[in-house]
Amino acid sequence: MNDRVSRAIAVIGGTGPAGTGLALRWARAGEIVIIGSRDASRAQQTAETIRNRAGANAQVSGMENSAACAATDLLVLTVPFEGQAALLKQLKPSIRAGSVLIDATVPLAASVGGRASRTLSVWQGSAAQQTAELVPKGVSVAAAFHNASAELLNGDEHLECDVVVCSDDANATQVAMELAVKIPGVRAIDGGKLENARIVEQITALLIGLNIRHKGHAGIRITGLPDIAYKTG
C-alpha cells in the first residue's frame, strides 16, 4: 500500500467519542470516511456534524454497521468491550474477504460496572485477539489507537502522542501506521505481534487513572529508539 490510504475507512461504532474523534481527524486529512452505527440515522447525523467541522471538502457518510462493513475493506472498530463479541458475530457475514480490521477496543472494567482504571482478563489474551478469533478467515487484524485521548481527538490541537500498532500481518501493521500519522502530532510504532496488544490495552487503564488523578489527557511517548522506528506524517 502507498503512503496515502486510498480506500474508504469505515469506523464501526463511529458515533462514540473515540470513533468520532478518529473520523474527524481522518476527514480533515482528506480521507473518505464512513461512520457505522447500529442506527443508520444516528450515523448520518454524526457524519453531518463531522463534515461541518472538517470543512466543505470533507467526504463523510453514515451507514448502519453492516452496510459500512460491506462498503469497504478497511474497518476500524471503536466499540465498548461488552458489545464487541456480539457485534462482530452479527457483522461477520458483511465483512469482506481480505479486509483489514483495526481494533481500538479496550477491555475496561467500567464496561461491566467496575472501575475504568482497571482492565478485565480476556480468555484469548486481549480484546484484539478476541476480534481475530471472531472475524472471517483471511481478515487481518491490527490493534491500535488505544492510548489516544478521545477528548483530544475531538479537538483541534496536535495530539503529541505515539500510537503503538500490534499485528501478526505486516500489511495490516503498515495500514494502521499510515492511518495513525494522518493525525497531526502522532508518531506510529510497530509494536510487534498481536499478542502484545494486551500490554497496550492495559496501558489505557493506567492513563485513565492518571487523568482522573491529575485532571489531564495523558498519552504515551516511546523514547530512545532509532529514528527509523518512528513513522511520522
Structural class: alpha/beta
**Strand count, sense and closure of the main sheet?**
9 strands, mixed
Count of extended strands: 9
Low-confidence stretches: 111-115
Q: Provide the domain count.
A: 1
In short:
The chain has 8 helices and 9 strands.
List the helices and strands and how they pair.
Blueprint: E1 9-12, H1 17-28, E2 32-37, H2 40-54, E3 59-64, H3 65-71, E4 74-77, H4 81-91, E5 100-103, H5 127-134, E6 140-143, H6 150-153, E7 162-167, H7 170-180, E8 187-190, H8 197-214, E9 230-231
Parallel strand pairs: 1-2, 1-4, 2-3, 4-5, 5-6, 7-8
Antiparallel strand pairs: 6-7, 8-9
Keywords:
233 residues; alpha/beta; Rossmann fold; 8 helices; 37% helix
Word description of this protein:
By secondary structure, the protein is of the alpha/beta class. The chain has a single domain, classed as 3-Layer(aba) Sandwich (Rossmann fold), CATH 3.40.50. Helix content is 37%, strand content 17%. The chain has helices at 17-28, 40-54, 65-71, 81-91, 127-134, 150-153, 170-180, 197-214, and strands at 9-12, 32-37, 59-64, 74-77, 100-103, 140-143, 162-167, 187-190, 230-231. Strands 3-2-1-4-5-6-7-8-9 form a nine-stranded mixed sheet, sandwiched between helices. Mean pLDDT is 91; it is low at 111-115.
